[in-house]
Amino acid sequence: MEGNKQKTVLITGASNGFGMEFAKLFAKDGYNLVLVARSVERLRELGYSLQDEHQLQQVCIVQSDLSRREAPQEIYDQLKQQGVQVDVLVNNAGVGVHGFFHETELDRELDLIQLNITSLVHLTKLFLKDMVSRNEGKILNLASIVSFMPSPLMAVYAASKAFVLSFSEALQNEVKDKNITITALCPGASDTYFFKRADAENSRAANGPLSSPEDVAKDGYDALMKGETRVVSGVLNKVQAGISNVLPDSALASTMRFQMEEKQDGTDNRIPESRL
After folding, report:
1. Catalytic residue among 31, 157, 193, 221
2. Which residues, if any, are the signal sequence (predicted)?
3. Chain centre distance of CA 81
4. What is the pLDDT along the chain (276 residues), one digit of tens a residue?
């Protein structure tokens, strides 16, 4: 869109999965891009191809590891020095850790909390202040279907996504009288690298029905542009989110544990609505 050519979106975790699809959607609508991830080569390939395809005025490639405490401030300061105004913030970067909590590595879970929660809060604090001063802006935070329920074998991850959902909805209320939109996107199990990186590729959830990253990103993008506070991506996930309001947490936890357990040969993979 012509009116978006002077606007810029910052997307974390932009080198693959949902982040890459968000970049495509914003570029198609004329937004300039700030792409953040650890893999700079993938970012360059994606960013510059989108710049050529859509004739974007500016693409900034930022190599950063958001599991580092200093990373959000470094990103913000770098963009300020370059005179880049961020009109839309997409907090997409995130990671999971699979396994029984008493057996998993504490350092991995502390890094998860830093990435999924602390860096998201830090980036939101920095850029939301600027948006409030301009009385304009949009923020999209990646939550999850497990934001609504406890998830054994993914206990810290699910808790982090419950935080993201609660945080996003509280902030939306705080800025309701301003020209600012804060949206939480809640996808289910999707065809990304998530399960492999979480060491959960053999779980039932990873081997069940998977949403496409393109569909999930489009649901989130459309909801953000419409000013919606929350969007659950996928029909079955919408059903599951509704059921979570009725079933006790103990029943939800049992269902999620079944989904996160390793799928054995010859066993069924029923309960398709129970997806991460």
Report:
1. 157
2. none
3. 27
4. 555 668 999 999 999 999 999 999 999 999 999 999 998 999 999 999 999 999 999 999 999 999 999 999 999 999 999 999 999 999 999 999 999 999 999 999 999 999 999 999 999 999 999 999 999 999 999 999 999 999 999 999 999 999 999 999 999 999 999 999 999 999 999 999 999 999 999 999 999 999 999 999 999 999 999 999 999 998 988 998 998 988 999 999 999 999 999 977 544 444 433 333
Structure tokens of 65?
A: 């590891």
Question: CATH number of the domain that 99 lies in?
Answer: 3.40.50.720
Ranges assigned E (strand) in 100-165: 137-142
Q: Is 76 a catalytic residue?
A: no
* Cut 0.85: pTM above it: yes
Q: Is residue 276 part of a domain?
A: no
Cβ pair 226, 260 in contact under 8 A: no
Q: Is residue 63 part of a domain?
A: yes
Q: Is residue 274 part of a domain?
A: no
The tokens for 111 are: 């890094």
Q: Is residue 267 part of a domain?
A: no
3-state DSSP percent of the chain in helix, strand and coil, to 5: 50, 15, 35
Domains of the chain: total:
1
Give the structural domain span for 129: 2-260
